[in-house]
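Q: Could you write out the predicted structure for this multi-component system? I'm mainly interested in how the pieces pack against one another.
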Amino acid sequence: MKEKLQKIREHAMAQIQSAENLNTLNDVRVAILGKKGELTSVLKGMKEVAPEDRPKVGQLVNETREEIERVLEEARKKMEAFVREEKLKAEVIDVTLPAKKNRVGHRHPNTIALEEVERIFIGMGYEVVEGPEIEYDLYNFEKLNIPDGHPAKDEQDTFYINKEILLRTQTSPCQARVMEQGKLPIRMIAPGRVFRSDEVDATHSPSFHQVEGLVVDKNITFADLKGTLEEFAKELFGPETRTKFRPHHFPFTEPSAEVDVSCFKCGGKGCRFCKGSGWIEILGCGMVHPHVLEMCGIDPEQYTGFAFGVGLERIALLKYEIDDMRLLYENDIRFLGQF
Amino acid sequence: MDTSLSWIKAYVPELNVTAQEYTDAMTLSGTKVEGYRALDADLENIIIGQIVKIERHPDADKLVVCQVDVGGEAPVQIVTGAPNVKEGQKVPVVLDGGRVAGGHDGKLTPGGIKIKKGKLRGVESNGMMCSIEELGQTREMFPEAPELGIYIFPDDVRVGESAVKALGLDDVIFEYEITSNRVDCYSVIGIAREAAATFRKKFILPEVKVQGSGGDVNDYIRVDVKDADLCPRYCARVVKNIKLGPSPKWMQRRLAVNGIRPINNIVDITNYVMEEYGQPMHAYDLDTIAGRQILVRRAEKNEKFVTLDGQERTMDDSVLMICDGEKAIGIAGIMGGENSMITDNVKTMLFEAACFDGVNIRLSAKKVGLRTEASGKFEKGLDPNNAQAAIDRACQLIEELGAGEVVDGMVDVYTGMKKPVRVPFDADKINALLGTDITKEQMLSYLHMVELEYDERTGEILVPTFRQDVLCLADLAEEVARFYGYDNIPTTLPTGEATTGKLPFKLRMEAVARDIAEFCGFSQGMTYSFESPKVFDKLLLDKEDPLRNAIVISNPLGEDFSIMRTTSLNGMLTSLATNYNRRNKNVRLYELGNIYMAEELPLTELPDERMQFTLGMYGEGDFFTMKGVVEEFFDKIGLRKKEIYDPDAGKPFLHPGRQAKIVYCGKTVGYLGEVHPAVAEAYGIGERAYVAVLDMPAILPFATFDRKYEGIAKYPAVNRDISMVIPKEVLAGQIEEVIENKGGSYLESYQLFDVYEGAQIKKGYKSMAYSIVFRAKDKTLEEADVASAMKRIL
């Protein structure tokens, strides 16, 4: 019996050794361990074994069975690993072949610039508001301290529909509209389309975009205006950016300033981009003129405020180094696709 | 406005700065210097030499060999071809290694031309004698320079000294951007005052004194100002025994470097004072003035007048005229008349320094079609108190230059004398506005520098009349700030009540629209809000179409930009066409922009500005691709109900069989379709193009960002496929409406999976197959549940 088992075992080991694939391996299992397998038939022959020897033989049979099973399992695992390996080897691809893209569209550079500006000011607690593009003279000029006869009102710059209604030349009328609502304090920005009677060329467009900003509260100072715009410039153009405030004149702010930022191309050393000066002009600003506050129903003795206006196209052109403003309105996808 | 540094220094003698320092400091104190130009930038090593000997060149007829004394030990030998050289002349000489600005033909070479010694036809030449053109100047500005040849100095210059200096070319010209509120800075004196304050130096005004030659101006002229509203002040003086001649070199140089051509002493004095004081003046030949009388009045309607440039001009009744006893002799503040102009025979002259209404001058200059140096100054609104100073200065110069004899007295018609404004001064408030901590004394010292004087008694600042821009405390704060230095003001952030940053709902929806469009492959375009009225014909719109009721711009840039758009389609089709022309393939564009719908025309109220979400494409994709984008968008902004596509959209610019009006909850919210081939052709798009236009204000009331979780189905679904043969005209939408209405509460979804027309189907019919899914939330559906639903549908 013992020898028989020994023989079965040796036979099994040999067969496992020589199995070529998973199928032949499975055949080996069936031939030895299956219902009609060699080892099974040994068990069936247990009747012939003397009762006192049965436990010992039984143990021997089980041991043999376990050993064969173990070796079989090992062989199977090895073989499976080999098969997987082979499969993976066969599936090698050229990863440098072109990507399959879902062709996503591109945002207009103006919008990208606007979203940057909005993000910065929303973070500082500003509300975004809108105003009409076709506007009353009253809001575009009168309430901003630009009375009849002021050169800024000259027909050369302004598109008129009639005497009272025009295409807004600036987003500043939003200032007057928001102040008139009387909800204080005010922290707002107003982006939008504006119009001026300029012929189209590389640096002019009769239609462009501005973002207006306005803060009105108690104790607002020129220092606050400086701090806010400095923060803005750093966020927009990078933390190294320096700002320079130069006195200027706007009818609806006093004191007024123009703001230059250190050239983000050369860092202020002077290059072709900043025409050698190291500075680039980006916006106009000032303290809201007390007369404007008054006209909009806010007591200038109690409240002060600051306002600023920035040209979106100017920022987009500078930031993305676009050399011709006309590109912004042609909508060539080879241009748009670069943003 | 330009000034030379030397002219500024005439009033600020202590000023000692480089051009760059001047530029930076002036800009930071509020007088923006746009740029500067050193006149001698390209001139080097040019000195005054005297020709001591001229000999013929041994080998060239047209050349001569000169020995030139340049103040050295021995004369320098220079060969020249100039025809005008003579022994004894003093001339500008550029020595070996020096530079000149250009050639004698007047062409300038950036960086200059280097001069080296060499041989001319075998004779050594150690430099070059210069023409005015080689020095970078013109005969216009240096009228004494010969037409051909070397510039010859007058005899009083010293050999060996700088020729550049002798010609006044050791100077820098600054170009300023003066803001419209600083009328006083359109003058050399105004800018000099700012420069003195900026550099904390003494400012010295010219001392104006007219000696007079006796007589009484009132015996020569009478002035009546009929329309004083347009002429607050009219000053007149008379000069007799005029001796016309050239003005002195120093005056010519100052005018020349400021770009003003010297003409004769009278004209030059007028121009000089206009630059210096910012006050334009006019000179009339008194003998041409009828009745020795001046009348200032508005023109008659259609009055004709010949200005001194010989042109006949037509006035309207708002233009102010200067007249004599019989006729008009000048358009006030713009240009004098041919009939009274100064000629070489002038004996007695009437000098006019007036102040006219700025707005009126600006409008008149436009109406007459003549903008002059004078009108450019007047239109800014001049200080009437400056007129007298200026006319006296001019008379002083006339005396000093011996150009005539000034008659005593001045006719001065001045209604409502302009007095200094008083502005209450409050240092604390100024500090509160600026966020600074500047002492009162410091503030007053800044103000004093620009002649804003403190009246201790009343606590007010007296504002001189030339500063028309200082009217309130905020204006004083700006004066303080700019001399304290904007740079020195601290930087802080606003304190006070915190506010929430917000993007309004409308803009959030537009942001979603951008996201969806871009995910679907559309790039954002931008087009103009105004367009041509021809657009309507191009879009095949009916003559009565309400879209034709567009708002018209009264002063457009041309017909092509003359109406405010009532449809966003033209912009989109134009952009598609641009891309098509440039052979771009598979173009997908979108735009978010307003159209402008008038309640009534002509406009009395602001129009309805409607944001349009416009999509356009050609290349890959079809009608249903576009429809997919629309539905993705609707889904993202919470429009969950089924939108209806009504093929009866009535859009003449779209393919009649491929267009649909989009209706949501009974409201039209947009349309989409294939561009009509005729329209595509008109725009030059050679492929099928598709557009969708969504009217955002119509969509907004349905939009929401609210979401509710509905659970994931636990019970199995039951699928049923149905296939039917139906007449071709029946729309999928109609079938789906039936499925939806009759499907009952277990209906979960349905999908069209096959449409077939062809051989096996009767002509005029089509086969459509739907897969319908039923599911209950609370149980496994039984056959009977599904069967009854299917029965209802069928």
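A: Regarding packing and overall arrangement: Chain B touches chain A through 89 residues (CB under 8 Å).
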